[in-house]
């Protein structure tokens, strides 16, 4: 009886995937032998150039609060393309993402001496205390259940150095009340503006929080949605 060679599965990422943006094709093999083929994101019916511009543009706020030598956390980091954008600022970039295969893609595409990627779960992050100068949590908050959102804010606050800045986003729930999205199955808990602010106020003082908003048609759905960006400054410690 002949022997059959066992082959590992092949996983396909990117292409029509509207939740993670992949800017380049890539083939690689995971440590367990799983072969991965990533295709550049191309969503039918969507303007790809507009999608990429909007996705990159959100992170200009991170650049505003980046300086040479700063430790900057991007969580969730998705496919890691922000690291390529922010490297010109001379920062020490760290990206965390809950999908291990996407983490491997990011390492291979954008990893470097000052750029590191690792697994991270927004629901149980366990970050270093007072470690980061700037933290970006962009298009992550809405992907976790309500019960995890306040603990996440507390964790991000603790991870910031005194005087550090958190930039965090959330799409407004189009139903007019906070809750799960009726349009995007991946959005577990979208917030109203008031609920978003009140969430941030659980750790940050109201005078240290600024909201920026814009309207856009997201990857899922066809109607304009308001997206909020909270710019939150952690107080400096008082001298004793």
TrEMBL record:
Entry-linked Pfam families: Methyltransf_23
Top-rank taxon, per record: Bacteria
The residue range of the signal peptide is none
Q: Sorted alphabetically, which InterPro entries does this protein's record hold? A: SAM-dependent_MTases_sf
Protein name, as recorded: Methyltransferase domain-containing protein
Q: Which organism is it from?
A: Candidatus Yanofskybacteria bacterium RIFOXYD1_FULL_42_10
Q: What is the lineage of its organism?
A: Bacteria, Candidatus Yanofskyibacteriota
């Amino acid at each position: 009886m002949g022997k059959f060679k066992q082959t590992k599965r092949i996983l396909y990422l990117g292409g029509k995937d509207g939740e993670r943006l992949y800017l380049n094709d890539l083939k690689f093999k995971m440590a367990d032998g799983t072969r991965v083929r990533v295709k550049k994101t191309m969503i039918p019916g969507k303007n790809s150039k507009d999608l990429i511009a909007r996705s990159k543009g959100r992170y200009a706020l991170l650049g505003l609060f980046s300086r040479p030598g700063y430790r900057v956390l991007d969580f969730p980091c998705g496919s890691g393309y922000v690291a390529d954008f922010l490297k010109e600022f001379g920062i020490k970039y760290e990206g965390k993402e809950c999908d291990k295969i996407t983490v491997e893609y990011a390492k291979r595409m954008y990893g470097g001496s000052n750029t590191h990627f690792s697994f991270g779960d927004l629901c149980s992050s366990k970050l270093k205390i007072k470690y980061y100068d700037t933290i970006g949590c962009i298009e992550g908050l809405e992907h976790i259940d309500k019960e995890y959102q306040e603990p996440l804010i507390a964790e991000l606050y603790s991870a910031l150095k005194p005087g550090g800045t958190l930039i965090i986003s959330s799409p407004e729930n189009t139903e007019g009340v906070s809750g799960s999205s009726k349009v995007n199955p991946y959005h577990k808990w979208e917030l109203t503006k008031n609920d978003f602010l009140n969430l941030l106020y659980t750790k940050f003082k109201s005078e240290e929080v600024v909201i920026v908003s814009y309207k856009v048609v997201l990857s899922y759905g066809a109607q304009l949605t308001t997206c909020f960006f909270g710019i939150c400054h952690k107080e400096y410690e008082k001298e004793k």
